[in-house]
């Protein structure tokens, strides 16, 4: 790419100024405040545009610094350049209102679109960040920014793997990190949910176990009471006098017990007792009636006395009979109540056994349910697999980038070493670069950092790095080299060597200076150049 003409319509201090440039070396001379840095910034703004910054960045915003001194609403310029054998005209309006960019191929009349990337294609994918850190060197800015190392890493990885220099390795790693962050957040949420589910399940299992334990305890108590009652009844049967001479009460108790154990129909002994009880009642009633008749109708005193005695005896016997029957009934009722209570306990015991059985079935079902994979836990495991895949992808990308950097990095080291060696008169022949573009100078007996050499040598070292990286980024479309008083710390000899190297490089060189020594060296060595004097404008 070669810039032929700059048309500064309204930019900084310049208004309707045209500057003609040529291929090769262009010496742009101007005293202090003549506008060298303004032209330098104008070229960069034409190539990449200018945006007004906000916040803290606005303090050093180039947009504000180079707003036109006259009529700031009209903030525009143009450039004519050659690329790929065709002539192009680029026009820009930088003003916030009515901002516009036009790109026209004057060779064939085709109108191109900057918004759709046609200018970026002509610049061979060069970004402003890369350009500012390679071919474009401002005053006292020989060092490179950290962003260059990232851009260079992306370029190396993309170019080596796919031939596409726009592949962004750092962006891919950033996406993976964001993906990991999202996966970890989802995993944390699911883990909290799973812990709550686990606690709920543990509590449910403990409640089931406690319920079973309480029912078994209650059932064992009832079983012990039933066993004790049965043993007491068996003992009373064995030791009772009714084993030898059964009484009416014992007979009723035995009959009641048998009836409760077997069937409700009365036995023959019970029926005999009922008939005997009825006969005794009739006998007592007959005696009372006979006694009453004797008292009323007997003419003899002793007969009447005997009748009274008979009536008393009969009444006494009847009272004793009724009392005996009542005692028997109470005893029988008590036995039946005890039997009923016993049966109730047996039924309660059986019911507890059934409930315990159901609870144990629930416990077994709960245990089988726990053995099955929990859906939440399954999701956590899948997230773990995805996280492992993200880690593997990031590690693979980094490993590949390191391997690529090791391959292309050695090529870059050789280029930097060659340029630096020519500029220093073969004094330093080997330069080492790490992945962050940190420089090390290897001499015959030691390794030096840029801070350990003179300021001039350090400036040359960073200049060689910029030129080497620029050649790596744009091997097919050399970009113009913009140098704004970049050689202030160079001595005479090294400046001569640097200018001789620049004259031999394929790039168009725009050397902005306020000194005469560059021109003197170029004239001394017969190096052709195109001179532009800003003081003449």
- Which series of helices and strands comes N to C? EEEHHEEEEHHEHHHHHHEEEHEHEHE
Separate helix tally: 13
Which regions are unreliable across 5 or more consecutive residues at pLDDT < 50? Answer: 143-167, 240-264
Class computed from helices, strands and strand pairing: alpha/beta
Q: Can you say what the CATH homologous superfamily of the domain at 1-126 and 474-537 is? A: P-loop containing nucleotide triphosphate hydrolases
State the CATH class of the domain at 1-126 and 474-537.
Alpha Beta
Order of strands, main sheet, comes to 2-1-4-5-6-7
Question: What gap, in angstroms, lies between the N and C termini?
Answer: 26 Å
Radius of gyration, in angstroms, nearest whole number: 58 Å
Overall form: rod-shaped
Helical amount among residues, as a percent range? 55-70%
The CATH topology of the domain at 1-126 and 474-537 is what? Rossmann fold
Q: How is the biggest beta sheet arranged?
A: 6 strands, antiparallel
Number of strands: 14
What is the average per-residue confidence, as pLDDT, rounded to a whole number? 77
Task: Please report which band the strand proportion falls in: under 5%, 5-15%, 15-25%, 25-35%, 35-45% or over 45%.
Answer: 5-15%
Pfam families: AAA_27
Region (Disordered): 228-274
Domain YhaN AAA: 1-57
Biased composition (Polar residues): 228-239
